[in-house]
Request: fold
Amino acid sequence: MTIGMSKLRLVWIYPDLLSTYGDQGNALIVERRARLRGIDVERVDVRSDQAVPTSGDIYLIGGGEDRPQRLAAERLRKDPGLGQAVSRGATLLAVCAGYQIIGHEFVDDLDRVEPGLGLLDVKSGRGPVGRRCVGEVLADVDPQLGLQPLSGFENHQGVTHLGAGAKPLARVTAGFGNGTGDGTEGAWSGRVLGTYLHGPVMSRNPGLADLLLTWATGVPLTPLEDRWHEQLRSERLRAVRAQAG
Amino acid sequence: MTGTPVPGQGAGPARGPEALPPRAKLAVTASRVTAAISRRAGKGSGSVIGGKIALRIAPDLLAQLADHLQVVLVSGTNGKTTTTRLVAEAMRAAGPVVSNALGANMPAGITSALAGAGDAVYGVIEVDEKYLAGVARDADPLAIVLLNLSRDQLDRAAETRMLAEKWREGLRGTEAVLVANADDPLVVWAASSAKDVVWVAAGQMWQEDSWSCPSCGGVMNRPGDDWFCGDCDFRRPQVTWSLVGDEMVDPDGAVWPLELQLPGRANRANATTAAAVASVFGVDTAAALARMKNVTAVAGRYDVVPYQGRNLRLLLAKNPAGWLETFSLIDPAPAPVILSVNALDADGKDTSWLWDVDYTKLAGRPLAVLGQRRLDLAVRLDVAGLTFTVHEHLADAVAACPPGQIEVIANYTAFQQLRRTIKEAQA
Reply:
């Protein structure tokens, strides 16, 4: 999309299945931050019995419980829309269950290894029995992306291993992240990002929304007055650092 | 017909706890002593600690105490405490009732409440969703109320559909009559393994946890008030009791105005459910409704209290479904609203759910924000394009509100804190 030519198309995939952790928030935040800069936005919510459009600029996939995750993967595997969009350079952010789905494989609610969409070079499996990764996360982002440390809340059983074709999105200073014990959190490659962070992640890290908007529009964005986001960020950072001692 | 046991259930007159075996009697005494000590130490009612001690001494005490009673269990994500109260009021038309009216709804709190049964004939028991199957096994209830299931405290609770599955397994083949909400597909899934179900059209504004069919995973169709799966034969059952607008329709088609003092659609639904329960026990609907109309506040909820020369109405909303129902019952704009949110253990520590709540419904009102997680709320309201003020103390939030009764909506521990603050100011 080029500014002044058309609307920015924001596609939220499967709110009926993958919207368990306030995932609508990321869509609302991208939408608002675009509008505040005079960018016209068309938001498209795609239900799981509808086709994913190929013409989107930014795609979002959220988190969900184990069974809806399997159903979502089954339906997305049959729909070439998202894959086509990503291969022509669209931007994608996937969170938690969605992050696992866009990788090569994950373990479903029936304990079967399910194929993912292969849009990001990661594989997910189950973590150690009895360990669920729940709580606040703080993580330093890959310097190449130029973002402030990420703050968020994680709640997952799965662990995600990165292949050679994906880089860690961040390294945790508190919390589990990918759960592999190497301190990595999330993954990215090209314009595809995956993360375990809820909050929703953009409520505490509006820079992430701006990164997606910059990728999608191809132009630098005017800075915004981020009073409440900034206050929330610093309150959360203080709380997590105090907890970590 | 009043006080008549349900035919075939053989429940005789209550014998009271004096008929208990010695070990159970000892456990009841120990629980009362412990509770009294706990109360004297200023640690609340003492019912939970008392119940824990008693269950340690006599693990089957809950079952033994319930054996003397005709029991109704009430469970669901939202409306448990209020519905329990309404059912208890209605049942009093038939005889004395014991109830865990203050919402201590896990086995220890329930045991403690039942230990104080006295001459009660009926036990009306609120049960936490996670404990329903176990309590239903122990308490041998004659009726079980299933209100609704929706996302709540996901960082520490089971997944919503898993809860429905646990209910379904736990209630399979139960002898109890289920009184269940036909408008919540998860509840219908849970209840439809039972033999005897009274379906109530109690409504459910929140639909975001049941878009996929609990039976086959297909996408749910929702034309008007109806719902059905597009892929299998799972659909809304035929109802016998309904809430239609402000009125209740009974199984004979008779229309009853619901002139409750409790506000809102959700409470009219709770009253309809309570009338259906009362009818299972042979309580006359007119008598049941007349008693329910006297209820004005439930454990502080819906209470209008004076504070700093203003009137505050206190409303508890713990999760997205609860907030949605609450927004529908508050006074119209421009009535001022104070919102307070905490994320302590009892609330769930993840505030992501705030983004499931449609705060644009509060547009056009003066808004003030409070609570441990007021900044999470501030970001949420800001992104919704609303104007608001943020405060540390209730007094400042109240002072920031223009004249008129103030609607105060808070989640669990925030609600308790507000009640304490107001009580201290009144002292």
